[in-house]
Amino acid sequence: MEKSVATLSEFEAEAVRFASQLMPHEQATLVTLSGELGAGKTAFAKAIARALGIEEIVTSPTFVLEKIYLLPEEKAFNYGMPKPSFKRLVHIDAYRLERGSDLNALGFDELVRDADNLILLEWPEKVADALPAPAVRIALASHPDGSRTISYG
Questions:
Q1: Digit-coded pLDDT (tens) for 88-117
Q2: Of the candidates 152, 149, 129, which has an alpha carbon nearest to the alpha carbon of residue 141?
């Protein structure tokens, strides 16, 4: 499925819609975010975090590689939608990694085994050899007019 959005508010609304449909699996729910620099991977992750009730500032984990956010326990999902039953949002940026084995230092295998985790992983192509099949693959593309295309696979 492919979705085109013209504005930042439409882009964020699409991230909220996407987040509202996420449900835990037997293991962590892995969502990969691909796209060129500036395509909106981190912006999409930030919008998902806000939708899940994370109030702290969500920034790109490019230099720290991984950030883990505890999700609030209240049942109300931001924007009036039901809250998925994840306990943690794990945001990983693999841009600076060279191979999948570099994820070992983050305890990735343990993170993936925990069904309470929603993992958003930017730059999955850098570590593809170590990834289980993601629940959703998202490819983002930005266009000169400021619009974006979001492709789900």
A1: 999 999 998 999 999 998 899 999 999 999
A2: 149
- What is the rounded (10 degree) CA torsion for 125, 94, 73, 43? -80
As given in the structure block, the two tokens for residue 76 are: 């109300």
59 Cβ contact list (under 8 Å, min separation 6): 42, 67
- If we measure between CA atoms, which residue out of 84, 80, 146, 91 comes closest to residue 116? 84
Over residues 13-42, the pLDDT tens digits come to: 999 899 888 888 889 999 999 999 989 999
CATH number for domain 2-152, candidates 3.90.78.10, 3.90.1150.10, 3.40.50.300, 1.10.357.10: 3.40.50.300
